[in-house]
Amino acid sequence: MAFGSRLISKLRPKKGEAGEKDGAKTENHHTPNSSNSRSTTPPPPAVVGAGQKPTIASAQADPISVDEARDEITKSSRSKYPHNGPFSQVHNPGQSLVRAQRMLEESFGNLHATLKESAEYYEGASVGDNAVKQAMAVASNEPLTSADAYSKVIEKALLKDEAQQDTISGRTRICMSKVFPILSVAAGLLPLKITANALSQVVTLASNDHSSSVAVVEGLEELSDHQQFLNSVSSLNFELDNGTDSILVKVTNLLVAITDFLRISIQFLQRNFVRRVWDQVTTDHVNTAMKSLQDARQNFDLAVHGAAAATILRRENEAVTGKALYDMSPLTFKKTHDDVVINRLENSGQWLLEHPKFDKWLRGDILTLWCPGKGGAGKTFLTSVVIDRVDSYLKSQRETQPDKRVGLVYLYCRFQNEAEQTVLKFIPAIIQQLAAQDLSAVGQVKKFNDKHATQPATLDQYTSFLSELLDSFSAVYLMVDALDEFSKSEYEKKLFVQELLSLSSTRTTLRIFITSRPDHDIAQELGGENVDIEASEMDIHAYIERAIKTNPTWKSWVGKRPELHTKMLATIPNKARKIFQLAKMQIGHLETEYTVEDVIDALDSLSDNVNDYYKMSIERIERMSEARDKDIINIILKWVYFAKRPLRVDEICHILAVKPKNTSATRLQRIVESNAGSWLQTFIDRSAGLLTIREESQIVSVAHPTVQEYLKTLEATLLSTAEEEISERCLTYLFLDVFADGSSADFDDPIFHRLSMFPFVEYASTFWGDHLRGKPEENTALQDLALGFLKNEQLLSSSVQMALVSPAVDRSNGGLGLYSGYRFFGRETPGVVVAAKFGLLLAVNLLLDKGANINSQGREFNNALQAASHGGHPRVVKLLLERGANVNTKGESHREHSSALYSASDAGHVQVVTALLNGGAEVNARRGESSNPLQAAATKGHTAIVKILLDTGANVNARCGGIEGNALSVASRRGHIGVVKLLLQNKTPKVEVNPKGGIEYDALRAATRAGNEAIVRLLIESGADVNANGPLEEASRLGYMAIVKLLLQNGADVNGKGNPLQAAAGRGREAIVALLLEKGANVNAPGSNVLQVACNHGHEATVRLLLKNGADVNAPRVYYRDNCMDMFALQTAASRGHVAVARLLLEEGADVNAEGGSTGNALGAARTGRILEEVVLLSEDGSTDNTPRVPAVEKRENMVRLLLEWGATETPVRQVNGQR
Question: Are 1091 and 1112 in contact (CB under 8 A)?
Fold first, then answer.
């Protein structure tokens, strides 16, 4: 190991030392006696006997030679040192480190020579080989305990008599025991035995000459203070992961100073005995060496503590960053991706990567590539291949073009995750992934989160934010796997596709890759290029080869009967019909055969229908001799099939531990503990290929989506009673005595204890009623169990509280993401409200019969009527209305006082809306101060409900608070053309196409912002004013060329509100800029500066176009932002580091010394502008003078050089608004 690398490794704790080793906690990992399975405490070091007098020469029987040391130093000068910051870079050591290493080599050689030269005069005790080797062994295994180990070596070898502690000899030896640990941690390379023996000589010589030893002892005592640093390393347990060349230089210099000090001390102390050799060494020499030692130690301290401070700051920033990203979206797809990759065949999917259309998509010639394929064709595996290929491609892009930002985003859709797969959850997930790759965007994410902390953001706000984020990237690749599994709601699926296409329609930087089953609607929405996915024969052959290789019996058979191998390669791909999952099941079927002849015969009769194999798997399970095994596998199958979300291994283990009518939590825990380990995996392995455990995510699921489809055919037979059994287990679990105390008011301990000790409680609390709903009423035992639970206030309140904990919470991060107010909900939630929320008709009726208050409030679920309306349970709604529920009561929870009608309209439940209106619901009732039922339905595109509400008298022009606008504007913004037509056709009253008020009510601007040309045209035809609220500015800014043309054709003012030309120039929309200029846009319009805005963003082509069309290169902008008041275009370009743009401006006559804003002239802007932000971030991240020139630094230097070449002069920084 190179010298510098060894230093860093010694300071960085090994894996496991900071808490656990091999799964067992280490109480004190700083003690030399701590142990694990891979290392043992060495025996006590050998002590040199009192009668022995080994010389230096004899003590160095197996020394580390100078040549070896030189080799190590030479290696270290050529090595590379890792930097573990967010943008990891690897670089060669700087010249200062190389020079320091050469000095160390020279100093070490001098010390070695001094020791050899003085050996004949030295008769003191030396440190033995065994003691040194043992200490080194401890250091290699336990870096943070090596200080103690080395101290003991020195103490046992040198400190003979504690009574001598007050003497010079005693003081010196004590110093040695303190100094030596410093070498143990700092030295790394410095040969231990030679250094130890140099120390030994100093001790012995100091003992013989008290008067001459004072200076040496004082120097050693100064050095021993360095122990404080060692203690801080141990106590803080931080990683010096910002260990740069600077630290390595400082520590190398420290070692040089130590080595020189030891050498001079030996020479000085021996002068009384060998005057002819060392007469020239005086006390001044010792003092000088001591001063050098002190300086080196202080410099090293500063470097290390600086790195430690940077590490602490980085960790704090990482915590803030992690929370900001998690608050944006808790969804993560990495574990899913890793699960797929683990099971992927090596080099599979190469055919797709080599496809001409894929290559065009990768290069950006195709923006959207759709890859449809049948179930089992291997779409998910191919998606993972594409993700890895793009990741590799982008890494090479970052290396060759580090100034360009490129991003990779991927989403895996799964039918089990439907609750998490909505547009309103996936768009933030895209933002989260992108921001994680551009740390400068994290601040904006945090601001966005803070802004919407109390009022959740709308889809429009998310997409607007994502649009701005995408514009900061040179290229973004977005992969979506299994789009057909995104949602059962065709509306939700269509909306998601429309949002993605809207984002890609205005920029060539977003490249979308989508897989799905063949789907006519998806094909219509996506259009464009597609590549059909089929399992390639090469991939199937590779799978067959792996099956043979991993099956010892088959391997033996193929060796003896080569024709078996040939027949398998020929038959299986043909029978599999290019469906990978079918080939997999065929091979699984062949593995059940007993003889080679059976396999050969079975190959002739292979079915080409995957369901035949699933049927055989079920039959094999049913034929199991062990009834217990069969029952457990069937239970798992039922749960996995009917689960409302994916279930983890720990949840399944708790499910299997539930025993009917047994509510002892202790007993359940004992069962779970007794089944720990690979117990569950045993049953998964015996499920005949139907079940699997995803290795990374620890999710138990069907082996393939086609298994889920087959199980659907068994709902009326094998699975007929499954949901009754599931709801019974859920309720039994919720009856556990540990939950008898009810909900918790404590945010920390009880909640997290329950979640960690009883992981299934979250699922059971959230979904028990969904499994029970619609089950036969004749199952009186189950109905009684449910009724008893709903009447138990304590158990019910605990359950409601658990249901409010997001399923996406990652418990490993301490519960980050829990809704901060969850503890205040559920304490008094009535059973009738919970029953209504789940749609449990019988339970609601029985609870009302027993006196439940029909209008009682339930906080999270509001009242029973609203809970049933939101859940879409028309029978329960009708029952509640018949029994006297107040149809217009509003809830009291964070749902902002919404009514039942609002909830049903928002959720799209037509039958419920009709029932509520028939029951007297107020059609125009608002949700607090915000939206009404009509707006809610219009927002979601529920055309049928919009018509019902309009027919019932809904106010088509009702305005709502906030930014939500009215029904026409939200429908236009969301692209619901059917709803827009309905609203425009409403006769009494007529919809206001041009309402007075803010832009939030302007439907034309809303449609323009969404890029929906059809709705823009429809609104214009209906009389929308194209100049009212700046739709042309919006279309120009977002790059919607077709809409820009449409607006201009219908009379939009090219110099109108918002300055369309400036909006287009700021985003670099060169084609639109050219069109607007052609139509008469004023390139030098007063009150703005189009040229400056283009310069601010570095759009060189746009700047060139503006200058060609007469833009005034020296016109100041009256107001842009506070720090840009009265600034000129050249200053703006200089502050941003856009060298090419600045050069263009100078060539066109820009005044290099024109002063404006707070920066003086352009030169001042270059030195103080936003370009420095990147430099500051780098310095905070631990970068040093030896760090390679980063783009931000190079931009600044190149800009300054350019301006100076054009005659720029220094000007003082001016004050603006009292600030410099």
Answer: yes
Q: Which domain holds residue 603?
A: 537-608
- Are residues 213 and 293 both part of a single domain? yes
Task: Pinpoint the alpha helices (H) of 591-741.
Answer: 596-604, 610-622, 627-642, 649-657, 665-674, 679-685, 705-712, 722-734
Say which CATH number the domain at 521 has.
Answer: 3.40.50.300
* Distance in angstroms (rounded) separating the CA atoms of residues 417 and 756: 22
Q: How far is residue 22's CA from residue 37's CA, in Å, rounded to a whole number? A: 7
CA distance 924 to 955: 7
Say which residues have a Cβ less than 8 Å from residue 674's Cβ, sequence separation at least 6.
Answer: none
pLDDT value of position 118 = 61
- CATH of residue 1193's domain is 1.25.40.20
Burial class of residue 125 in the structure, from the number of CB atoms within 10 Å of its CB (0-12 exposed, 13-18 middle, 19+ buried) = buried
State the sign of the Cα–Cα–Cα–Cα dihedral 908, 911, 913, 916: negative
CB 371 within 8 A of CB 531: yes
pLDDT number for residue 725: 94
Question: Are the C-beta atoms of 628 and 621 separated by less than 8 Å?
Answer: no
| Boundary residue ending a domain (530, 565, 589) | 530
Flag whether 995 is in a domain: no
Do 64 and 191 contact (CB within 8 A), yes or no? Answer: yes
What CA–CA distance (Å, rounded) separates 1041 from 753? 57
- Is the residue at 62 inside a domain? no
Of all helices (H) and strands (E), which one includes residue 799? helix 793-803
Structural domain contains residue 991: no
What is d(CA 1161, CA 1208) in angstroms, rounded to the nearest whole number?
8
Could you tell me if 526 and 548 lie in one domain?
no
Q: CA-CA distance, 1011 to 1004, in Å (whole number)?
A: 11
CA distance 556 to 246: 60
Tell me the mean pLDDT per 10 residues along the chain, length 1220.
Answer: 31 34 35 33 29 30 35 34 27 56 68 63 47 50 45 45 47 50 41 52 56 56 47 40 54 69 70 46 69 70 62 72 90 91 87 94 92 90 95 90 87 85 93 90 90 82 90 92 88 87 84 91 82 89 90 90 92 89 91 90 91 93 90 95 93 94 93 87 92 89 92 92 94 94 66 83 93 82 94 91 61 39 54 94 95 82 88 96 91 63 93 96 79 91 95 89 76 91 91 81 89 93 92 92 95 91 92 95 85 90 95 74 64 88 93 79 75 37 35 69 85 46
Distance CA 134, CA 126 (A): 15
Tell which of 575, 593, 608 closes a domain.
608
Contact by Cβ (8 Å): 1020, 1026: yes
Best CA proximity match to 101, nearest among 191, 189, 185, 8? 189
What DSSP line would sit under 417-470, residue for residue? GGGG-SHHHHHHHHHHHHHHT-GGGHHHHHHHHHHTSSSPPPHHHHHHHHHHHH
Question: pTM for the complete prediction?
Answer: 0.68
In a domain? residue 277: yes
What's the chain's Rg over C-alpha atoms? Answer: 38
3-state secondary structure of 510: strand
- pLDDT at residue 1117 in the model: 66
Tokens of 880: 């509640």
* Helix extents (H) in 1119-1190: 1129-1136, 1139-1147, 1162-1168, 1171-1180
pLDDT value at residue 461: 86
Q: Are residues 276 and 406 in the same domain?
A: no
C-alpha to C-alpha distance for 1209 and 1211, rounded to whole angstroms: 6
> Which residue, 340, 355, 421, is CA-closest to 385?
340
pLDDT at 1210: 73
Q: How many independent structural domains does the chain possess? A: 4
